[in-house]
TrEMBL record:
Name of this protein: Extracellular solute-binding protein
InterPro entries on file: Bact_solute-bd_prot1, SBP
Signal peptide: 1-22
Domain of life: Bacteria
UniProt keyword annotation of Glycoprotein present: no
PANTHER family (alphabetical): ARABINOSE-BINDING PROTEIN-RELATED, DIACETYLCHITOBIOSE BINDING PROTEIN DASA
Gene3D superfamilies with a match to the protein in the record: Periplasmic binding protein-like II
Organism: Paenibacillus hemerocallicola
Keywords: Signal
């Protein structure tokens, strides 16, 4: 199945390539252009005439509506044709030849987009439009370039999905335990979790649970899943053992075994971290009286790597875009101070250096008065691991095996589990390569 998908994607990319080749052949007598030569010599004039831009995205939330409103107000000459991934999958889009002018997706979709030929190096456009990439906060540019073995700028992130530690004040009060605080290590969190993990009157209170994806995939130690030089798993290492000993160790606490329990619905989890669920938490607080707060994401003791690796949705421009300059100008505006401030007011963490945006962070969010919302701004981007096209395979195996029942039940030791995870990843990579 994986092989057939790969061949199918290759065919889709060939269709795109042939379409582009046919278009180029109509101008066979012209001088061959280098990448970026199509960019206007006057980028500011790119949107002076009416233009329809095809925008492809997997975001069907209020943020898409905000983008549409901002673009319409800023550029009345632009008509935005929006296609949602939920309505037209990537393979359908490419096969139909309906190539978008620009796209926005979550980082987890990057390799699929690349395999369908919907990603290109944006450096020439950045140069021609005099895009100031120094506005990005530290770690962004290095993280983007880690997705290319040639250091290309294949996408531009537009906000930061910061990680924080949510906690339930009621549980801490119930058991007379001090609240978490900013700047903790995971070792300190372990001690807090130990004090509040228990069964009482038929209720199981979990001290700490975490979403695997954020803390595994973009782990704080900057550990790779696959060696880019050999395309083989890089899991059976002392560094991954350290990670699993610390993070997996939480599930060996009495009464803190892993279960799929909701922090804001069940309200029996003392501490939780993962995706930004502040909107859901605020709603739960209003309807059920959930007494919550947040602190900055804890760190590994003795580690200087910083926060999690970058987790950020991004904009990109496909190589087949008919309006690259116009699309890039729109993207530049969506990364402007004006837009970053507008989104920061509604709780989106700015990914550019903008005191104006950080000062008004979450100002328009209801239900966060008195909360430690500054914690969202303290999660610094950690050093990126080298990224490969096989990371998705490795992540799936890691989630199911390294953090699976053999680990929780202690039927196998950590070294054995990591060795078996590595063997399984290599087997699956080999299947795809055949």
């Amino acid at each position: 199945m994986a092989v057939n998908r790969r061949l199918y994607r290759t065919g889709c990319v060939m269709i795109v390539s042939l379409s582009l080749l046919a278009a180029c052949s109509q101008n066979a007598g012209e001088k061959r252009k280098s990448p970026g030569d199509d960019a206007s010599s006057d980028p500011g004039a790119a949107l002076s005439a009416p233009v329809t831009l095809h925008y492809y995205t997997n975001d069907n939330t209020k943020w898409l509506e905000l983008e549409k409103q901002l673009i319409a107000k800023k550029y009345p000459n632009v008509t935005l044709k929006v296609t949602l991934e939920a309505d037209q999958k990537m393979d359908q889009l490419v096969t139909a030849g309906e190539l978008p002018d620009f796209i926005s997706f979550s980082l987890g979709s990057f390799w699929d987009l690349k395999s369908y030929g919907l990603i290109s190096d944006m450096a020439p456009l950045m140069k021609n439009h005099r895009f100031d990439d120094s506005r990005y906060i530290p770690g962004v540019l290095e993280s983007v370039r880690s997705y290319s073995d040639r250091g290309e700028m294949l996408f531009l992130p537009f906000e930061l999905n910061s990680n924080v530690l949510f906690y339930n004040k009621t549980i801490f009060d119930k058991f007379g335990v001090s609240y978490p605080r900013d700047g903790m290590t995971w070792e300190v969190v372990y001690e807090l979790a130990r004090k509040v993990s228990r069964k009482e009157n038929g209720t199981e209170y979990k001290g700490f649970l975490f979403q695997h994806q954020n803390l595994v995939w973009k782990n704080q130690l900057g550990l790779p899943f696959v060696d880019p030089k050999t395309n083989k798993a890089a899991i059976h290492t002392a560094e991954w053992k350290k990670w699993l000993d610390v993070m997996g160790g939480f599930y060996f606490l009495p009464d803190n075994d892993y279960k799929n329990v909701s922090f804001y619905k069940d309200q029996t989890v003392a501490m939780w971290t993962g995706a930004n669920i502040v909107s859901s938490v605020v709603e739960a607080s209003a309807s059920t009286g959930l007494n919550w707060d947040v602190v900055s994401l804890p760190q590994f003791g003795g580690s200087a790597n910083g926060g999690t690796q970058m987790i950020a949705p991004f904009y990109a421009i496909p190589p087949g875009s008919k309006h690259k300059d116009e699309a890039f100008q729109v993207i530049s505006y969506l990364l402007s101070e004006e837009v970053q401030v507008a989104k920061a007011r509604q709780g989106k963490v700015p990914i550019v250096n903008s005191p104006a945006a950080t000062q008004v962070f979450a100002a328009d969010l209801k239900g966060v008065s008195g909360k430690n919302m500054g914690a969202f701004l303290k999660d610094k981007i950690g050093k990126p691991a080298v990224v490969t096209q096989y990371d998705g395979i490795a992540k799936d195996v890691f989630y199911k095996t390294a953090l699976g029942k053999d680990f929780y039940s202690r039927t196998k030791d950590v070294n054995t589990i990591l060795r078996e995870v590595e063997e399984e990843i290599n087997r699956k990579i080999k299947e795809v390569q055949q």
